[in-house]
Specification:
- The protein is 43% helix and 18% strand.
- The protein has 349 residues and is α/β, with parallel strands linked by helices.
- Strand 6, helix 4 (109-118) and strand 7 (122-126) form a beta-alpha-beta unit.
Length: 349
């Protein structure tokens, strides 16, 4: 089949997951054209030369540690005219000899709108739809109810009336809407090929937009070694090693670590779960999807959810590692087989 595949540019999680699916589709003999933006465009264009068109995408704006809804709205309105012009140009490019039969969207709007204009079926592949299409089975604190309502409405109106929603997830709440299939998380080849061991260090991933006293908190646990990615520095601070960006180095450390301390991002959490690494999840404030991932980690018994990184919180997490390892031993998935089978079933309809 001829497929238009849309990937959002905000963050790289969507791009790394979509890269796996696009490679599978090409290997199956399908013709694929991709639209994306920002850093995701650069990653995908390098992986699939000549198959990726750049569009203007949506970006989040931050105030301190949290996503600022007001700043995000202002940024979107300020850049809208240029974005529309650029995207219209790529729309015309797509019309030049490329006639897709179906659109696959990883929470991306341009490809979805293209499908609706041309009467094409849409297949949604992403983890966000779990917020709208399932009945959440975790207790929702008062502080998260407004964030949940906002996130649910955003997700509900993002790709409405798609033909099928393939929702990637490491937890399985009951469905509340039809045309929905829950499948295990998409795993990169490097993760599938990894042979996990249990080292003596904790892998930490945090970005500069999150907690700024991270090193000081971890230094209060001198008996435990930490390798920290996200600040792109190569420095040692006692028991805390800051690591410069290296995808190969990060992958090796993920496979060899004792446990993972991260935010609530879906990609790293799902990879850690697959490799049976206990997770201490500290979601970025005001991002409900991250809060939900962290809450499910705690509910499944795979680790803990913390509001902020503290020496006491991390110490308690480390003390409980044996019970988390026991819970994780029961998790298994057959690579990406279930997703690929569900996708191929939709493509032959």
């Amino acid at each position: 089949m001829t497929i238009l595949y849309g990937v959002p540019g905000e963050g790289l999680g969507h791009a790394t997951r979509s890269k796996v699916v696009i490679a599978h589709l090409l290997a199956q003999g399908h013709t694929v054209r991709v639209v994306s933006s920002s850093r995701a465009y650069a990653l995908l264009a390098a992986a699939f030369p000549g198959l990726v068109l750049e569009i203007r995408g949506f970006h989040l704006a931050y105030r301190g540690l949290a996503v600022s809804k007001l700043r995000t709205a202002a940024l979107t309105l300020r850049t809208a005219p240029q974005d529309v012009a650029a995207n219209f140009g790529q729309y015309l490019n797509l019309l030049g000899g490329f006639t897709p039969e179906v659109v696959v969207s990883d929470f991306e709007s341009f490809s979805y709108l293209f499908a609706k204009v041309h009467g094409l079926p849409v297949i949604s592949i992403d983890n966000m739809q779990v917020i709208n299409r399932t009945r959440l089975d975790v207790a929702l604190p008062e502080s998260e109810k407004a964030h949940y309502g906002l996130a649910k409405n955003i997700v509900r109106f993002k790709l409405p009336r798609s033909r099928r929603y393939l929702v990637t997830t490491f937890f399985y709440p009951p469905l509340r809407k039809g045309r929905t299939t829950l499948v295990p998380p998409i795993l990169r080849p490097e993760i599938l090929a990894a042979r996990p061991t249990t080292g003596d260090f904790v892998l930490v991933y945090q970005s500069a937009t999150t907690q700024h006293d991270l090193v000081a908190q971890l230094q209060q646990l001198p008996e435990q070694s930490f390798r920290v990615y996200g600040f792109n520095k190569d420095e040692r601070h006692g028991n805390v090693q800051l690591c410069a960006f290296s995808e190969a180095g990060f992958m090796a450390d993920l496979a060899a670590c004792r446990a993972v301390l991260t935010n609530g991002g879906f990609s790293l959490i799902s990879e850690a779960v697959y490799l049976h690494k206990p997770v201490c999840a500290v979601p970025i404030p005001a991002q409900f999807e991250q809060w939900l991932n962290a809450a499910q980690i705690a509910k499944c018994g795979y680790g803990v959810q913390l509001a902020a990184i503290s020496a006491d919180g991390v110490r308690d997490f480390l003390r409980r590692l044996p019970q988390f390892e026991t819970a994780l031993a029961g998790y298994a998935q057959d690579g990406n087989a279930r997703l690929f089978a569900a996708l191929e079933a939709e493509l032959i309809v």
